[in-house]
Design brief:
The complex is a heterodimer of chains A (245) and B (132). Chain A has 245 residues and is an alpha+beta fold. Helices cover 63% and strands 10% of the residues of chain A. Chain A contains eleven helices and four strands, in the order H-E-H-E-E-H-H-E-H-H-H-H-H-H-H. The longest helix of chain A has 28 residues, at 217-244. The longest helix of chain B has 24 residues, at 108-131. Chain B has a single domain, classed as Four Helix Bundle (Hemerythrin (Met), subunit A) (Up-down Bundle), CATH 1.20.120.330. The two termini of chain B are 26 Å apart. The chains are: A alpha+beta (245), B mainly alpha (132). The A-B interface holds A 4, 43, 45, 60-64, 66-69, 85, 119-120, 123, 126-127, 130, 133-134, 136-139, 141-142, 146, 149, 153, 230-231, 233-234, 237-238 and B 2, 8, 11-12, 15-16, 19, 22, 25-27, 29, 31-32, 35-36, 39, 43, 58-61, 65, 82, 85-86, 88-89, 92-93, 95-98, 100.
């Protein structure tokens, strides 16, 4: 394992640089995602949440570290708006550096807010369209990655709607099975641990589309209709450009 | 190491660039544009590495490191390593439904234009290798 891959080293280097760049700021660094749950795979990112009292400078991206930063006010607002990432962080995040501000957030009424599952439908639909576009471009790996996002967001919507809080991706396989969505759980498992092939991805795209329509037909159709309008406008623009040339 | 053949990777990158170009037009779709540009850059780096006989892996950050290595070895004229790393961050934010202010500040026209230039560079590199 080289220095870029060593998780302890990555996090230590990041926090050291973060503190050096922002010596005056109140900083909270929270380990989130599958690493925080101890369920990571070789492909998993090392996800960190940074919450600060004001604007800060972030170190440059490094290795598989993925950092999301919010001011304390912005993070509280996300909790109030029913954002499931923020809700996940306050429930399962592991503080690496924390101040009174983080304690105040996790003990606040905002931290008890249940995420809005409908938000995940729009997002899953967007990822599904990207996954199919990547398949059209002949990029199986990119399509598999986008399909994984689409399936994960759909799974989160289903679980949240049923009153189960989604854990990490590997744990959601079991959660889906327990909540009657075994088929989606199996597809999630294939995407996490298996090898992508076109037939399997196409099958998953159809299945996810059906689930999204079942979850919220109006949101799905509105997104598709809006997207069609945008594409038509762009085609017209493209034709105009061609005529001018 | 993956075994996708070289022409496939550059062709894929061209198709992804073409899709990204459409997303860069008004009304802009920044999330989709940066995601497709990211995959296109990666495919182009892999196409160059394959033509040069350099090893590569599927890990995103290792492809960014590979881009830097190819630049330092004077195999590529442009160092796209930092751009790949930044785009990786941006598209991950988008994929988690957490696009930050940096996405809104990204000049999409510049992004697709720079990508097109890089694809041309890789195309030229491959042609030169094939001719020699």
């Amino acid at each position: 394992m080289n220095a870029t891959e060593n998780p302890t080293r990555l996090v230590t280097d990041f926090t050291t640089e973060l503190r050096a760049l922002n010596p005056e700021r109140d900083l909270n660094v929270i380990l989130v995602g599958s690493v925080a749950r101890g369920t990571e795979t070789l492909q998993s990112d090392l996800d960190l949440l940074v919450v600060s009292d004001a604007e800060i400078r972030l170190p440059a991206p490094r290795g598989r570290l993925h950092v999301q930063w919010f001011t304390e006010d912005a993070f509280r607002e996300k909790l109030r708006s029913g954002d499931d990432f923020a809700a996940w962080c306050v429930r399962f995040g592991v503080p690496l550096i924390s101040s009174a501000a983080w304690t105040s957030i996790i003990n606040s009424t905002e931290a008890e807010a249940w995420p809005e599952w409908r938000k995940k439908v729009t997002h899953a639909t967007r990822r599904l369209f990207l996954a199919t576009a990547m398949l059209d471009a002949g990029d199986l790996d990119a399509s598999a990655e986008e399909t994984l996002y689409a399936v994960s967001h759909t799974a989160r919507a289903l679980l949240l709607r049923q009153g189960a809080f989604p854990l990490s991706r590997p744990e959601m396989v079991q959660q889906l099975a327990e909540s009657g969505h075994q088929a989606l759980g199996e597809q999630l498992k294939e995407l996490i641990y298996g090898t992508a092939n076109e037939r399997r991805l196409t099958r998953t795209h159809f299945y996810v589309k059906k689930l999204l329509v079942h979850l919220d037909k109006t949101t799905y159709r509105n997104y598709v209709s809006e997207r069609r309008k945008i594409l038509q406008a762009k085609r017209r623009k493209s034709r105009r450009k061609a005529l001018v040339k | 190491m993956n075994a996708f053949p070289r022409p496939g990777n550059l062709e894929r990158a061209r198709r992804q660039w073409d899709q990204a170009l459409t997303h860069s037009w008004e009304p802009e779709e920044p999330g989709e544009c940066v995601t497709k540009c990211f995959y296109a850059y990666e495919n182009a780096v892999v196409a160059a590495a394959t033509a040069l006989g350099a090893k590569w892996t599927k890990k995103h950050y290792e492809k960014a490191e590979l881009a830097k290595k190819l630049f330092e070895e004077n195999k590529l004229k442009n160092n796209v390593s930092d751009r790949l790393a930044r785009l990786n961050e941006l598209r991950k934010d988008v994929s988690y439904d957490e696009p930050g202010p940096e996405l809104a500040e990204t000049d999409l026209e510049d992004l697709v234009s720079d990508l097109e230039n890089f694809l041309d560079e890789v195309d030229e590199l491959i042609s030169n290798i094939e001719e020699s």
